[in-house]
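User: Show me an example of a complex going from sequences to structure tokens.

Assistant: Sure. Here are the input components:
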Amino acid sequence: MGGLVGYGAYVPYYRLERTRITGVLGQGGGSGTRSVAAFDEDTTSMAVAAGRAALAGLTGPGGQPGRACVRRLFFATTVPAYADKTNATAVHAALRLPADALAVDMAGAVRSGVGALVTAAASAVPTMAVLADIRTGLPGGADERDGGDGAAAFVFSGADGGAGLPVLAEVIGQGSATAEFLDRWRTPGAAASRVWEERFGEQVYGPLAEAAMADALKQAELTPGQVDHLIVAGLPARAVSRAVRAAGVPAEAVADSHAARIGNAGTAQPGIVLADVLDRAGPGETVLLVVLADGAFALALRTTQALARHRQAQPVAAQIAAGSTALDYATFLSWRGFLDREPPRRPDPDPVAAPPSQRRTSWKFGLVAAKCTRCGTRSLPPDRVCQQCHAVDEMAPEPLADVPATVTTYTVDRLAYTPSPPMLMVVLDFDGGGRMRCQLTDAAEDEVRAGLRVEMTFRRLVSAAGVHNYFWKARPVRPEISREG
Amino acid sequence: MGSHGIRDQVAIVGMGCTAFGEHWDKSTDDLLIESATAAAASAGVALEEIDAFWLGTMGSGVSGLTLSRPLRLAGKPVTRLENMCATGSESLRNACYAVASGAYDCAMAIGVEKLKDSGFSGLVGSALPGAGDDGKGETTAPANFSLLAPAYATKYGVDPAELKDVLTRIAWKNHQNGAKNPRAQFRKEVSRETIAKSPLVAGMLGIFDCSGVSDGSAAAIVVRASDAHRYASRPLYVKALSLVAGPASGLSDPGYDFTTFPEVVASAQDAYAQAGITDPRGELALAEVHDCFTPTELVLMEDLGFAERGQGWKDVLSGRFDLDGDLPVNPDGGLKAFGHPIGASGLRMMFEAWLQLRGEAPEQRAVRTVGEGRSLALTHNLGGGPGECVSFVSVVGTEREA
């Protein structure tokens, strides 16, 4: 019997204080903060961040990297960066998954996340489900205030227990209910969702949630009182509250959604909250995950002894705590496309071209440099002729995405084209050798200095002529907050 | 194998240079016609008497037709070439070699750039299809060159505020010189306070630390040295021509520290060897260097051997490179004040050497070193940026020794 073998969540660095909305518009807003994907993030880049976190602690048989065991990738989001073109392929490339691993999108509805999770959990082979979302709405509205951005990734071993990966949590029950009704909808291309009266949804979701929970608990042979962690996720807030009440679990079992601090990340919300529970749960504890979206879905899990040794490196709580509230509302609006700012008097950036991008997929998406097998010098980008010993074609692949680096010098470019000026440009030296010039992100101008420790992060640099340019940037290593338990 | 140069084998016998600036009323053709006819007149030849042409432009036209069409040249070889901001110098270098080889009696090197038709600030890059994964075109030129300043300050223990004074003084000096030059884009002296307080563009560089974006053209007529006096009473003999394209590894080599241009050091050493110069600071009457941004000029003083390593900033502050200093640098105002129409700049530098060494510079900016008997000038032209560049150095003089 297989189960969950790896997980990781990603909460972006920026937070919008809800009072900033009130301060500008004179209404809306509220208390607390919501998470905000930066101008250079999209659901694809956040999926990569969560996927990296899930794979980081995953080691396959014989010490091979866990990424080599993954056979399927399902990417769920309501905000795909591309239509027609698969977005999971970029995630697949950035995670350096095997070429023969299947990668597909499940894009469009909030419920797509359920699809990815169920498919991964039921898969015969090791499978990753990654959920990502960017939630907002028209300025001043509830969706803008209550939404959140983020991603979460889960790797399931496959039904046959695949590849000998240690199981962190077993799937012990499932239940689902599907119903056709207008709760929340958005026509493709629209800037915001629409919702029917919430009391209507509350009434429709009620019995659906109760049925799905009952089915999952029955399969798991659990009573509500035996549930250690209850997570009810979903955008219909009133229906979620009602389902929590109806579940009948002990009050202390109800997991905090952290909506007060990071908002509700829609498709990704069940994943982020589940990751947070897994960050803390002890062995042999039961988790009931319920998702309300166009019906209801419930998944029951039981944690194992192995969980404590294989938690994600950066707990959700630490990521929430590390956020910056320096973001002002005008910048938030411009990042989300609701406020057009005057661009610099510079030409629009050129779109990247398909053939050169394809020729360098492993570098551009995977940050795989080259290392001279004769003298050991790293080449970034991967060259054929060694800059040190001039050997020709004696290079081996050198993955650098997970190698920390130090800023050696930097500048602030106030003239360069960027969606959020000014551009912070750093020259960094990787631990163990290799130099690269790239942008610094998730950092304020006064934070950049020589000697700053940085880690690499996959971002969308710019979009031109409808083409997204994905590449890597550096970001400051934030002080780790020790995990609880 | 070896670099031998063509010392004293060819001479420049005529030059022309347009005013540099925002020529809203002039096209690329207009600028080319102006500098070409001025250079030809200066050498006393008709355009039809010139045997071959080398046209340098980074982006104001492609192919030899860019020159042959406006001049209506018929049956002549015209080569269009590009080597980033060293393009103008590269056209001169190729014309000199062609004459030295014996292939032609008389050649023209001409450079042009029309930057102000783009509607943008600063330089506009070429759009080669790429993968967007190498930083190319991501940052602007001022940002790339701004990396020199903190690196220099850190390495030599110069307080950043003091370094800002050094950079400001370089801009101030070049504006002082440009104010005495009727062809310069900026012909006003600018106070150090105004320079120091100008809005930041990148790093510690303000607007006044950056060269002028302008339109312009310059041209030179090259003949064999033995024929030179048939064209000019005071020809400029070419003593050295050196061009180095670096391995472009500075941005990927942790050993590079952003306080030098190795390509400049290499091209200067090659040029000094060709010209037989052992003490550039004591032998040169003047130098025209590539002051695209103020920290570039500071670093060049050391790379070209005009100052000891780590001491250049003190020499700048002491006025050593001022118009009345021991070694005047950019007496015409440099890229900073004269402006920087890419393809024309290298030949514009040579135009100042042409005027100064031959005693034709206006009195108010004539360097005293020439009067004191020095007869050599250096031009230095750079393309690219710290870590990946091409560098050109020439030495010319009024005395023929060989």
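The lines above are the inputs; the final block is the predicted structure for all two components together. Residues 3 and 100 of chain B are 15 Å apart (CA to CA).
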